[in-house]
Write a structure and sequence with these properties.
- The protein is mostly helical and about 120 residues long.
- About 50% of the residues lie in helices and about 10% in strands.
- The protein has five helices and three strands.
- The protein has a three-stranded antiparallel beta sheet with strand order 2-1-3.
- The protein starts with 7 loop residues before the first helix and ends with a helix.
Length: about 120
């Protein structure tokens, strides 16, 4: 296993601090759901932060935040900070997956019907 393949917890909190530049999120950070799909808009460039470059490489096809977190072996909160950077630089695009959730009124009607049984 190479150093880049180490699990995040083996590197300790110091590694996470370095990766995010000490940021844990701020007013400008976009909230990403674990199912938000991310797709690269460009290739990684020499000199980029390794984690940013890794995200651009794995997101050539859309991946969820949870999948990116698994690929990079980083917590979703750290991936969110990195994605905020890439989104601000327009290097990635975030897509909310289509929701096929039923209408709330329908759910309430079903619950009401079940309670009357």
């Amino acid at each position: 296993m190479s150093d880049s393949d180490q699990d995040w917890d083996k590197g300790g909190p110091e590694r996470l601090y370095v990766i995010t530049g000490g940021r844990t999120g701020n007013d400008e950070q976009v909230e990403f759901d674990l199912v938000t799909l991310i797709v690269s808009r460009e290739e990684s460039q020499p000199g980029m932060q390794p984690e940013h470059a890794a995200i651009l490489r794995v997101c050539r096809t859309p991946l969820s935040v949870a999948e990116i977190s698994a690929h990079l072996a980083l917590p979703p909160s750290v991936v969110g900070v990195l994605l905020t950077d890439l989104l601000a630089e327009r290097r990635v695009e975030a897509r909310v997956p289509a929701s096929n959730l039923p209408d709330i009124a329908l759910i309430e009607a079903v619950i009401d019907g079940l309670q009357k049984l």
